[in-house]
Design goal:
- The structure is a homodimer.
- Chain A is built from 10 helices and no strands.
- Chain A starts with 9 loop residues before the first helix and ends in a 20-residue tail after the last helix.
Amino acid sequence: MARAPEVGSEIHKERNRTVLETAARVICEKGYEAASVQDIADACGLTKAGLYYYIRSKEDLLLEIMNYGMDIFEERVLLPVLTISDPVERLKACMERNIFLVTEGWSKEVTIILHEHDTLTGAARAQINARKKRYVHFLESSFEEAIREGRIRQVEPRVAAFSFLGMVLWIYKWFRPDGKIPSEQLAREMQNLFFGGLEIPAPPSAPPSRKGTNKK
Amino acid sequence: MARAPEVGSEIHKERNRTVLETAARVICEKGYEAASVQDIADACGLTKAGLYYYIRSKEDLLLEIMNYGMDIFEERVLLPVLTISDPVERLKACMERNIFLVTEGWSKEVTIILHEHDTLTGAARAQINARKKRYVHFLESSFEEAIREGRIRQVEPRVAAFSFLGMVLWIYKWFRPDGKIPSEQLAREMQNLFFGGLEIPAPPSAPPSRKGTNKK
């Protein structure tokens, strides 16, 4: 232990981050149940004892990865949009940022948060669930605000929030960074689809009917 | 074996279905890795040897559950809408039926198909993936048709298809049958949201500007 960098030092933090990212990659590839502590230590270039300097247990490691993923999410998606006063612009910016988070390099932490959502137990599970719920609540209250201000149609805010999440988070299941759809196009099309809809409305100003079908 | 019902008989088929549904419930509750063959046999009221009369292996059981789930999906969602000639009506009906499948009692098979998508290997995996891909292809080609016929805006059909799937399939993660949103309302709101969009368009026919900003 004498040679280990001091806890709280920059070097320690950096190494801790590297361990978390490496462990996230292994768990993402093998699944949490199948990935052994030895697999993770091997991938980190550490002995098992060396790995246990950074983590207390495998479940603790999973919790740390999820908290790390939520930190990145809050820093890149949630915090930058909180100050946007118009609720629709706030939601659109949030959607774009969340899409980029899923498509650009952070997808292994996102995948673990989404896919291992039933793996944690007890206090660890409650902690991550509370952080996820804050995001759902942010979306719901932004939709409520947009309805109050007459910016969007009447909709159940909970349905809107989970529709938003479903579209955006499902991306981790099908998107390929080397595929034919660039992430910018994906973000733009999903924003248009979600806020503007797909269907082409019937022509708004047909000439007044000569047959008088519009009379009341 | 002498007392076992003849393979192919109605009684055999019915028992086989019961075994599949019970196994699906156990796997859904515990996860595939954690659920043992003994757990599944116990829940079915069978000995392990008795269970092996119905299944060849645990992985074979998972494949059977997924195929059973896909059978139900095709019977209840896909087949009834294939004959609808208007592509937008076809997609709307498909969305409604898929939402009801997820919300009403079949969610354990759906959950397993979605959640254990990386668990199968080899030919079994290829078989289920091919069935899933047929659904994606059906959605993509329906969106393409709707664009060609001028019924929806220009959109990348793949983005539309996976947005549709994300909204609808994510429901298994948050919907509670005893919650405040009935599944009929959920289906109607998602149809409106997806096809009609959320945002209220700016008033279409503002009086001609007196400032002349519209002159060209």
